[in-house]
Automatic annotation (TrEMBL):
This is T-complex protein 1 subunit gamma. Keywords: ATP-binding, Chaperone, Cytoplasm, Nucleotide-binding. It comes from Nicotiana sylvestris. Pfam families: Cpn60_TCP1 (PF00118). NCBIfam families: chap_CCT_gamma, thermosome_alpha, thermosome_beta. It is found in: Cytoplasm. Molecular chaperone; assists the folding of proteins upon ATP hydrolysis. Known to play a role, in vitro, in the folding of actin and tubulin. It comes from the Eukaryota. The lineage of its organism: Eukaryota, Viridiplantae, Streptophyta, Embryophyta, Tracheophyta.
Length: 557
């Protein structure tokens, strides 16, 4: 007798789940639409006002989404996607959002037809496995030591960025920097740590063409006693400390009772002798430069300058690590533990130069440095910030190729090949999963379609021609030249993509789409602010209906 009621409740629950999924899909599509126009070389720029009132002009997907303050939880999780992509491979932040948005968009039809989200997710996961298999099939290996190939590759990856107008400059800087800091880790593998050992110094002024990768380190510091200490030393012996060269102060309040007047003099003399001994221990190794992360007292400065030693104090820990890597020194914690092997002799030149109004210390011309500084010059701060963002992407691409030396075609060719192969395979997928699988295949076409839109060509004609050429999964190298919008052979135009970036983008996008599809309720644990005295009872957690989710502002005005 009670069976119909159960069925009714179940269908109501499913209906409500469908509402939440639709709201999530709408939110994800809204985020994708914000940055859809920034994909490709002819893309638009976005001008953002950040919290402190400054402006950022960029077309880097991650930089744009980082500044957005969205209310909807699904939209927030989309923003996380581009951050993940940025941290993992450093490029493809826009593609991943566009792809995830499209995957959810094609799933909407199945939600309306009362398909269960698990079925859709199963089909998507199968499509992802097949897509990665296609990637492996069309990928070609590249020789990491062939500089011309590497240059072309990095250049095509940052061809979509603002700095593409400066030609090879940024690609050159990126390859030089990553080649310097690459470390062999055995079995023919190289590890490149961009965050730790490559410092990007932005100095406004000069021209962008003056930017260089220094074979060593540059820091924004001057010597301690400018008149007395040398500002230029060839082949310096460098000692790095992270202990203070000043008298030790008591940890907490210290009281000393002095009975005689001479005791005070003795006390001062002890302080002086302590510092003198410390300096003597350092000077024993005949250094030319002493750099410490902590303080350096006037007296220590006097002893060092008397011995003709240049000193720099209060250096950042990260900078000190980079100097150690560049000149082969070891950072010492206590001066009395110094050994000859701790002295850095790898640097060719120590020099302090004045750029603009500030002094910068250069420790350059190092023998086999494992850290470097990229010095960026440019007309304005905004320009420099954008160049730095592009340089980070370029260095990430160079790092990815060094780690996984494989290439796939760019210009939407990869996505079209994957799409064609999946469409072919969909006929062999059994059961109800066939349709979502085919929809996932069509969703991959979002990337070339968006590229065509941003070039301003006839989208329908271009897409039809491309689909015809890719029909049987052949012509894997036919794609769109993002500058002209023509259908071209990507191999001839040298438009490449890194395999690691593409594979990561596909995985992140599809996994995120599956995650959002499987959400059937949004339960808010945030208490609404009440007027004083209104409703003393405890507020219950609120289950969001479709109406509420739709009313949330997706995009800040």
């Amino acid at each position: 007798m009670h069976a119909p009621v159960v069925v009714l409740q179940d269908s109501m629950k499913r209906e409500q789940g469908g509402k939440v999924q639709r709201a999530n899909i709408q939110a994800a599509k809204a985020v994708a639409d914000i940055i859809r126009t920034t994909l490709g070389p002819r893309s638009m720029l976005k001008m953002l006002l950040d919290a402190s009132g400054g402006i950022v002009v960029t077309n880097d997907g991650n930089a744009i989404l980082r500044e957005l303050d969205l209310a909807h939880p699904a939209a927030k999780s989309m923003i996380e996607l581009s951050r993940t992509q940025d941290e993992e491979v450093g490029d493809g932040t826009t593609s991943v959002i566009v792809l995830a948005g499209e995957m959810l968009h094609v799933a909407e039809a199945f939600i309306d037809k009362k398909y269960h989200p698990t079925v859709i997710c199963r089909a998507y996961t199968k499509a992802l496995e097949d897509a990665v298999a296609v990637l492996d099939k069309i990928a070609m290996t590249v020789d990491v030591n062939d500089r011309a190939t590497m240059l072309g590759l990095v250049k095509s990856c940052i061809g979509t960025k603002f700095t593409s107008q400066f030609g090879d400059l940024i690609a050159d800087l990126a390859i030089n920097a990553t080649t310097i800091v690459g470390v062999e880790v055995g079995q023919g593998l190289r590890e490149v740590d961009i965050k730790k050992y490559i410092k990007v110094e932005k100095v406004p002024g000069g021209q962008l063409e003056d930017s260089v990768v220094l074979k060593g380190v540059m820091i924004n510091k001057d010597v301690v006693a400018p008149g007395k200490m040398k500002r230029k030393i060839v082949n310096p012996r460098i000692i790095l400390l992270d202990s203070p060269l000043e008298y030790k102060k008591g940890e907490n309040q210290t009281n000393a009772e002095l009975l005689r007047e001479e005791d005070w003099t003795v006390l001062l003399k002890m302080e002086e002798e302590y510092i003198e001994n410390m300096c003597a221990q350092i000077l024993k190794f005949k250094p030319d430069v002493v750099i410490t992360e902590k303080g350096l007292s006037d007296l220590a400065c006097h002893y060092l300058s008397k011995a003709g030693v240049t000193a720099i104090r209060r250096l950042r820990k990260t900078d000190n690590n980079r100097i150690a890597k560049a000149c082969g020194a070891v950072i010492v914690n206590r001066p009395d533990e110094l050994q000859e092997s701790d002295v850095g002799t790898g640097a060719g030149l120590f020099e302090v130069k004045k750029i603009g109004d500030e002094f910068f210390t250069f420790i350059v011309d190092c023998k086999d440095p494992k850290a470097c500084t990229v010095l960026l010059r440019g007309a304005s701060k905004d320009l420099l910030n954008e160049v730095e963002r592009n340089l980070q992407d370029a260095m990430s691409v160079a790092r990815n190729i060094i780690k996984h030396p494989k290439l796939v075609p760019g210009g939407g060719a990869t996505e079209l090949t994957v799409s064609a192969m999946l469409k072919q395979k969909s006929s062999s997928v059994e059961g109800i999963e066939k349709w979502p699988y085919e929809a996932a295949a069509i969703a991959f076409e979002a990337i070339p379609r968006t590229l065509a839109q941003n070039c301003g060509v006839n989208v329908i004609r271009t897409m039809t021609a491309l689909q015809g050429k890719h029909a049987n999964g052949e012509n894997a190298w036919i794609g769109i030249d993002g500058n002209t919008g023509e259908i071209a052979d990507i191999k001839e135009r040298k438009i490449w993509d890194s395999y690691a970036v593409k594979a990561q983008a596909f995985k992140t996008a599809i996994e995120a789409a599956c995650l959002l599809l499987r959400i059937d309720d949004i339960v808010s644990g945030i208490k609404k602010k009440q007027a004083p005295g209104a409703g003393q009872g405890q507020s219950k957690p609120k289950i969001e209906e479709e109406g509420d989710a739709d009313n949330d502002q997706l995009i800040p005005e």
